[in-house]
Design brief:
Blueprint (H helix, E strand, L loop, with lengths): L6 E4 L5 H10 L4 E4 L3 H21 L4 H9 L1 E4 L10 E4 L5 H14 L5 E4 L6 H5 L8 E5 L9 E6 L5 H13 L3 E6 L6 H17 L5 H12 L5 H8 L1 H15 L8 H8 L18
Parallel strand pairs: 1-2, 1-4, 2-3, 4-5, 5-6, 7-8
Antiparallel strand pairs: 6-7
Helix pairs in contact: 1-2, 7-9, 7-10, 10-11
The chain binds acetoacetyl-coenzyme A and nicotinamide-adenine-dinucleotide (NAD).
Length: about 290
Amino acid sequence: MTTLQAIGVIGAGTMGNGIAQVCAAAGFPVVLQDLSQAALDRARKTMEGSLARQIKKGTLTDTQAADTLARITTATTLDPMADRDIVIEAIVEKLEVKAGILGKLDQICPEQTVFASNTSSISLTQLAAASAHPGRVIGMHFFNPVPVMQLVEIIRALQTTDAVSDAVTALTRAIGKTPRVSKDSYGFIVNRLLAPQINEAINCVYEGLATAEDIDSMMKLGANHPMGPLALGDLIGLDVVLNIMETLYQGFDDPKYRPSPLLKQMVHAGYLGRKTGKGFGSYPAA
Ligand code: CAA
Ligand code: NAD
């Protein structure tokens, strides 16, 4: 089985910086790429904050945190992906944008480089079709916040080879996460269940049934969820939730996945949740 060592992460947003952090914390050298230096600087600050929490808890030493950060180099172009064993993409949830990146990586990386997408919902089979070597494409779906959540959903495209699937499963274990495999289908398993629940909670706000705060508190007190669905939507990013719902709605061609009109309005208004400081809650520090 191929052993994946040198890791590239494309996109340093909510997910990309967490993925880079956990890979580096497990000892792997990481190149983290985004379009601007400002995005990379923000990512470093987030990773420093996350590592500081672990130091405070006593689960990480100062030296381990410094070593983790030292294993992460940053870039604003894709060229440093040329010597990576695996490139994990975590950019916007749009098929055409992700497909464009795969096409560029085909030009830069050798044929054996594995291309993993952290897509939340897009068909890996469609995505793989955009690569000159579709057998190397796979879904590696992390959960937010990445340093905390155990699961990585592994999604095999119709074209994914056994060798790529085995290597990515081994890497998932090596970074301390728990792999579970799903066949390729829009939203896979977790988001097919989770995103409609968030969407339906937004419809409850839209219909004026209760406040966002009360709906969240009902799901915490009545269903033992660690956080309510509206707070979770804010954590994920409401733009990401809308993109997932649109993929489910259009992909299955089924009205049960129709995005809430209020979800669309929130995104149009730029109220995306934690990352913009306002969603169903307010986040002044963002
Ligand atoms: N980095 C490192 N550690 C972190 C962290 C971060 N960014 N965020 C939280 N933690 C740690 C804390 O240090 C704390 O650790 P201990 O329990 O060991 O002390 C623990 O996580 C809990 O944190 P807090 O006490 O601050 O807060 P909390 O108890 O309210 O938990 C939470 C926060 C972990 C986010 C919890 O509310 C939770 O699990 N929420 C649900 C998250 C969820 O469902 N995620 C999946 C989203 S869907 C997705 O990701 C897929 C997609 O495609 C959209
Ligand atoms: P985000 O908006 O927080 O970050 C995306 C980052 O990608 C931004 O920093 C942006 O500048 C960068 N980017 C955009 N186009 C780029 C390009 N062409 N090249 C390099 N960088 C580019 O998004 P996110 O929430 O981290 O989501 C990223 C992916 O992960 C999406 O596919 C999303 O569906 C998936 N995902 C998100 C969550 C979540 O909870 N937010 C959970 C699991 C999976």
